[in-house]
Design goal:
Layout: E1 3-8, E2 14-18, E3 36-38, H1 48-79
Length: 82
Amino acid sequence: MPTFDYRCGSCGAEFEEWVKVADTSVPCPECGAAEAERQLSIPIVHSSTTRAKSMRAAKRRDDRKQYENMKVRMEYEADHDD
């Protein structure tokens, strides 16, 4: 059975549900509304290109964090120099 994403029109809850293809209505687990709207599900795709892009973004993030930590440490040392 496939898994689909749903959003309840009554309470706005978002949830996943395993359903048979023939099932047309799915009740909301939060409020019990009779029918929830099926949402578009986009699969996650991993490739060497997306991995390289993710690694570059992570390196930039880590470099920024390291710079901020160094800056804070230098300010602390300057303020607490005996």
